[in-house]
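wait is this the right file?? whatever heres the structure
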């Protein structure tokens, strides 16, 4: 095998390896983007749930601090 042929073979092998590495990088990047999109959707869902729970707590606080509630509680304790 001549020196030129060996250089061509080595260059082809190196480029083949680099091509495979680049494809793996692109696959990983696509998976990361898909995961981030799913995470954003889940975060939005959790934020809505927290907002709904905060509204329910505020309503319960109003009920408990209402004077009528305290009177009813005192009557029940008698």
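ok assuming it is, sequence goes like this
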């Amino acid at each position: 095998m001549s020196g030129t042929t060996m250089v061509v073979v080595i260059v082809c092998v190196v480029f083949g390896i680099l091509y495979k590495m680049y494809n793996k990088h692109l696959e990983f990047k696509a998976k990361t983007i898909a995961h981030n999109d799913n995470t954003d959707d889940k975060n939005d869902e959790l934020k809505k749930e927290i907002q709904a729970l905060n509204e329910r707590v505020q309503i319960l606080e109003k009920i408990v601090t209402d004077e009528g509630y305290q009177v009813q509680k005192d009557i029940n304790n008698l």
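Residues 6 and 71 are 97 Å apart (CA to CA). so i think its the right one actually
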